[in-house]
Amino acid sequence: MFDSTRTLYDKPRTVCDCLYPGEVTGKQFTSVWTRDPRPAKSPGRSRDEIVRAAVELLDAEGLEGLSMRKLGARLGTGATSIYWYVANKDELLELAYDDFWGEITLPEPTAQTWQQTVAAAAHGMRRLILRHPWSGELIGRMPSLGPNALAFAAVLRRTFKLAGFAGLEIDYANTTLTAYVFGMTIPELAWNKSKADGGYDPDTMREAVTKATAGIPELTESIHNSWDLDPDQVREMAFSFGLGAVLDGLEARLVT
Amino acid sequence: MFDSTRTLYDKPRTVCDCLYPGEVTGKQFTSVWTRDPRPAKSPGRSRDEIVRAAVELLDAEGLEGLSMRKLGARLGTGATSIYWYVANKDELLELAYDDFWGEITLPEPTAQTWQQTVAAAAHGMRRLILRHPWSGELIGRMPSLGPNALAFAAVLRRTFKLAGFAGLEIDYANTTLTAYVFGMTIPELAWNKSKADGGYDPDTMREAVTKATAGIPELTESIHNSWDLDPDQVREMAFSFGLGAVLDGLEARLVT
DNA sequence: GAGTGGAATCGAACACTGTACGAGATCCCC
DNA sequence: GGGGATCTCGTACAGTGTTCGATTCCACTC
């Protein structure tokens, strides 16, 4: 089943590739999830351990702070040893990304309205993303086909189905909700990143924004409105406001 | 006003920095938009020209395909010449990102319901992002403080204000809409990227997804539902569905 | 215990990245 | 023509992901 003489780099081939070996240069869709993993025999170093260390490094230093050499150092091994367990950095990121999804608490659709269940899931997603900011940069880069991401998607889908959606609209509703959460949270990350990179100084930051929006009355008014409020609190309120709107809109589509 | 003996790398300093020059090592919030640009005297090479070339390169080869050396080659100059006009690559990306925003057609809030105006803007945003997929990877990385992005935000805000929203809710509504569009579109980019990187083969892709979702009945059902439909069309329909839901939800918040 | 073969590690090397630096070129104005 | 500002760019440095081949390690059989 598992041919150990092949390295991880031998991508699986289509029938076509086998018929015309060497001639066909086209690559094809490839993901960690479409390939059998290395068997983790040894008790010591394993794929899981590597992924865990990668996530730690990502949390600590962000996406651009993760390098194979640093990761190797953290694991106490050479950088290139990692390539025995993982085909390349992108696939390591796929694994880390799914590990991220594994951290979410699956909503329990019992003894609650579907709105409550979905709202809880939404807040959970937001908190999770904010806790692992690097995830936001991966969302637009790789489809999430890992088991943890899929498990979460399945639970959420079931919730919408139980709510009464049918056919394609189950998935439409599901996608709508996650889209809202992603779209609301990802730009937050950009701000947090700017704060972190620049060594947060509220005054200079405020000054920068004021300068940028000067001359646009619509926006100076906007800034004035929330001038004395805690930014984090405003974001929380905005999130809840939009979430309520999305849920109401979905419900309206349910009744008809 | 513009001191030419300073290079672009001398970040603007706070009063504090000036009092204790050299001792203060802390950075601070910095963006292209908070600093005076190089005056574009020369008729030939200019900042705009560089940004335009960068966007072309980004469109052609994606975010990871843009390197200063390649950009220099495209401009017919040395790579490091670019640094005369731009402090570093991140700021070049900020400029490219705002150039991206400049491409959007500002909605005209006349002779239409606010829903129609907003829907038009949403579809415009989605098309724009899909046309420049690299934008999706920047959204979570840098706040958009450029004039074009702000102009668009201002117009959209005015639309919500005219619709009847008041106070902070103007911005909440505005954020909710853009969040939905971003969140719906960004994961699309991930799929398109996988398709492009892998040399699109619908069968292997389908096989991969089938394999990944096997064992999760919720998701196999989901896939089965849209099995024979054109993925692009499904995404369009999903986008319109969710957009309608968001608009309805916002309207509900307006009446009360 | 010796031998063997696969599992796993890793050092060296390659091509590439962003960018700091400083020497040179080019231009315009007096 | 002199001089100062503007602009170009070759070189270099530290860092990146990844390949390759040699080396070590370990469990197993004879």
From TrEMBL, chains A, B:
Domain HTH tetR-type: 44-104
An MF annotation (GO) of this entry: DNA-binding transcription factor activity
Thylakoid is among the record's keywords: no
Matches recorded under PROSITE patterns: HTH_TETR_2
Any single biological process term in GO: negative regulation of DNA-templated transcription
Pfam families (alphabetical): TetR_C_1, TetR_N
Lineage, uppermost ranks: Bacteria, Bacillati, Actinomycetota, Actinomycetes, Streptosporangiales
SUPFAM superfamilies: Homeodomain-like, Tetracyclin repressor-like, C-terminal domain
Gene3D superfamilies, A to Z: Homeodomain-like, Tetracycline Repressor, domain 2
Keywords assigned by UniProt, alphabetized: DNA-binding, Repressor, Transcription, Transcription regulation
Record's protein name: TetR family transcriptional regulator
DNA-binding region, residue range(s): 67-86
